[in-house]
Design goal:
Rossmann fold, 40% strand
């Protein structure tokens, strides 16, 4: 998604930083993509203290790894993308929304 949006920065998993921000231009405006990794968090309260909820309601794109760590924080209309591995050389993308 970052490549498709024209992000010029190197993209990597934010496992240790928790949230990475990437910038791209759209309709003459600078926009953000928040890449969030919740793996190290214990619960939703810890996610709130880390500022994750602010990202979710910022009107910017949020890509979240390990969303099951804070399921109650996602805003209405959130799309969930799951990649299943049904075989050694096969990937299946499952998209669901609330």
């Amino acid at each position: 998604m970052c490549m498709q949006k024209g992000v010029k920065d190197a993209v990597s998993s934010p496992t240790f930083s928790l949230i990475n921000e990437y910038y791209y231009e759209e309709s003459g405006q600078t926009r953000k993509i928040y890449h969030i990794d919740l793996y190290r968090l214990k619960d939703e309260e810890e996610a709130i203290r880390a500022g994750v909820e602010d990202c979710f309601y910022s009107d910017h794109i949020c890509l979240v790894e390990w969303p099951e760590k804070a399921p109650g924080l996602f805003p209405p209309g959130t799309l969930h993308f799951h990649i299943d591995l049904p075989g050694n050389e096969t990937r299946r993308l499952v998209i669901s929304g609330n």
